[in-house]
Amino acid sequence: MAMPDFDISPEEYKDELTRLFAQMMFVSGETAEPSPETTTIIEEIVHTQVVEMLKRSTELAVRRGSRSISTNDLFFLIRHDKAKLSRLVTFLSWKDVRKTAKDSDDKGGDAADMGGDDPLGGADGGPGGGGPVVADTGKKNKRTKVTLPWDISSYFSEQVPERDDDEDEDEEEMNAATILRLKIADERTKNMTRDEYVHYSECRQASFTFRKAKRFREWAGFHLHTDSKPNDDIVDILGFLTFEIVQTLTEEALQVKAEEESTKNRTGDADAESKKRKRETGLFGEQEEGRTPVGPKHIQEAFRRLQVKPIRNRVWMGGPRALHRTPLRLI
């Protein structure tokens, strides 16, 4: 059973988005407080990306002969980004574990089925967590394997029993990318104080959809781009992907800003006012002297770079077709 949504108005949700964008940017490495212009541009980009995903998913559903989009349609859209796909699959697997544990708890009296070791803290360790059924705990709380539509195993009704050490090359590559992301997060947090890390942990939980699914549907314009009402899994996946979009955009914008400052320092044209900038107090604490946040121009340049098609995927279309409009790339 899904948790009820917060009772907030569209205007309150709009203000909430600004706060959420700032928190997501902080998790992505932006320690200064972004300006309203910056968060507005990010919101426009994220909204455009969500609408594009809804349109493409609807087209895939129509090709399947269905009116409603499924999770496989969204999987297919990000199939080339193995690291992101790995994080999404893990997210859905643990979501199913938490839902199963909560349902078992709500039915009452069978707390032993949940065990006492929910990795995400979704299950409360209560009386009866041990006892004679400990041997079944691994089966009850084991993550559900999410089968991707292009996996060979999805072609057959009978499935081979899973092994703990069963890992193919794609999974190894996905896990390597996930470990790299964790190392980057560790570098960002290793010098934080206890209070700073608590705040960082709270910001990591920022979500556009958690208990705000109705307002998210209205903001994304679900009724304009899909004929049916997407289920909760679709909304959760889009909420997950929006966080990924903000994170990728912020990381690229920080790189653009660093290159700009490096160029200015080499040419000796650094802005004198930025050196004399007084210490300011931002949303996430005191900023370093001279520290300026990512600006709209950095976000725009980051978005431009992320839209550049890799050279291996370029095909020269001579003549009038060389001026055709390129489709939007999903971040």
Question: What this model shows, in words?
Answer:
By secondary structure, the protein is an all-alpha fold. Helices cover about 55% and strands about 0% of the residues. It contains twelve helices and two strands, in the order H-H-H-H-H-H-H-H-H-H-H-E-E-H. Strands 1-2 form a two-stranded antiparallel sheet. A hairpin with a 2-residue loop joins strand 1 (about 280) and strand 2 (about 285). The chain is globular and about 65 Å long.
Q: Notable features of this structure?
A:
single chain, 12 helices, 331 residues, mainly alpha, 2 strands, two-stranded antiparallel sheet, globular, 1% strand
The profile of the biggest β sheet is: 2 strands, antiparallel
Kindly state the percentage of residues in helix.
40-55%
The H/E string reads HHHHHHHHHHHEEH
Query: How many individual β-strands?
Result: 2
Biggest sheet, spatial arrangement of strands: 1-2
Number of helices: 12
Shape: globular
Report Rg. Answer: 23 Å
Percent strand equals under 5%
Mean pLDDT across the residues is: 77
What structural category do the secondary elements indicate? mainly alpha
Assembly level: single chain
- End-to-end gap: 32 Å
Low-confidence stretches: 111-139, 278-289
Q: Which helices and strands appear, and what pairs or packs with what?
A:
Elements: H1 10-27, H2 36-63, H3 71-77, H4 82-107, H5 137-141, H6 169-189, H7 194-204, H8 213-220, H9 222-225, H10 232-267, H11 272-275, E1 281-282, E2 285-286, H12 296-307
